[in-house]
Design a protein that fits this description.
Structural class: alpha+beta
CATH architecture of the largest domain: 2-Layer Sandwich
Order of helices and strands: HEHEEEHHEEE
Helix content: 25-40%
Number of strands: 7
Strand content: 25-35%
Low-confidence stretches: none
Distance between the termini: 28 Å
Radius of gyration: 18 Å
CATH class of the largest domain: Alpha Beta
Strand order of the largest sheet: 2-1-6-7
Length: about 150
């Protein structure tokens, strides 16, 4: 389950923010953005974060996950677009393609053409990674915490 390795990386960044916050008492909220092309299972990631954060300042923190739809750009004409939900579903339902995308999300761009000019010189500009958006940290000065 690669969600566990992702959770460990997120926890390391959260702990760094905690250590850099004067008077930090505990982490109250972790906000994540998960790109749909990452094919990360948000509930598996949430569970993994809950497990790896035991006995850390982040234990019991609320975990907020926003799923981010992919966005593509044509390198020829500059047009940007988001795929239809049906297209994303088709990728996730195809075992071979979903495995490829899971390993290398950029592979999706090789299967696309620009809806405006027809070029196949397409890049992914959003929706393929996991981003730690913010961390709320309760401090001694304020109950309810500062935000990182």
């Amino acid at each position: 389950m690669h969600e566990t390795s992702i959770a460990l990386s997120i926890l390391a960044a959260v702990e760094d923010a905690f250590k850099e916050t004067p008077g930090a008492k505990r982490v109250t909220k972790i906000r994540l953005q998960v790109g749909m092309l990452s094919l990360v299972d948000p509930e598996a990631l949430r569970f993994a974060l809950q497990v790896v954060s035991r006995d850390t300042p982040a234990e019991g923190a609320e975990i907020e996950i926003e799923m981010v739809k992919p966005r593509f750009r044509c390198n020829r004409c500059g047009y940007e677009w988001e795929p239809r939900d049906e297209d994303i579903e088709k990728i996730s339902q195809d075992p071979q393609l979903s495995t490829l995308v899971h390993i290398n999300p950029d592979i999706v761009a090789q299967y696309l053409t620009c809806p405006r000019c027809g070029s196949n010189d397409v890049e992914i500009v959003r929706g393929k990674g996991v981003i730690l958006h913010s961390v709320d940290i309760e401090t001694e000065e304020e109950s309810g915490g500062g935000q990182q």
